[in-house]
Design a protein that fits this description.
With about 240 residues, this protein is an alpha/beta fold. It is built from 8 helices and 8 strands, in the order ααβαβαβαβαββββαα. Helix 5 runs parallel beside helix 6.
Amino acid sequence: MPSLAAGLDQHPGIWRGSELARTACPGIASGFAPLDAELPGGGWPRGALTEILPQHEGIGELRILGPALARLAAQGKFIAWIAPPYLPYAPALAAAGIGLERVVIVKTSKDSDSLWAAEQALGSAACGGVLAWPREIRFAQLRRLQLAAEGGRCLAVLFRPTQAAREPSPAVLRIALATSAGGLALSILKRRGAPLSRPILLPALSAPLAAAGSSPTLRFDAHVVDSTTSAAVAAGSLSARLALA
């Protein structure tokens, strides 16, 4: 009969301090081998909250998610964008392999509406990924989103300012982004497992996205994608769009 210690050693919620945590389900491959090697589950976590803290908007916070979002879209899952600061550039999304018919954009005027929409999207079985840009958010609200992410088993990403790193968060993964030698430096501030003292350096991120499609960049721009030619882009009811799945 196995000992209690041996049983605990195999529990996915328990890990040695010198190791990465084991996960109940594999992560979503990021498309960047150096990053996947440092993430529990070998990729972006499913069913858990991730926070990305960019030095400034447009530094590459979307490009590092591009390959994972393309995989989810290819699986027929919606990608919900909750209150993005700018509308995403539709041709770059399509070229990166993210089908526009899988993209749902939710515009809100209040943080409370944004958080409600994010929670509903996380709890739906239709969304494979939920990206949200809260302006202000409290720990209790973060906890609600973490619980919703656990129930929905999807990729859940919040984009927050760098100063949020000083605040406590229930997110299982927190990554700060900064530029470095023309590329991107990813500092893992929090993960389930041993701390990482050095940043992960990625070169200019054009190659992975060009491989997924044919575009050198995935960027925010002022171009509108919520038109009649993109049926899944929503400016109003989230639930009505998710019903299309």
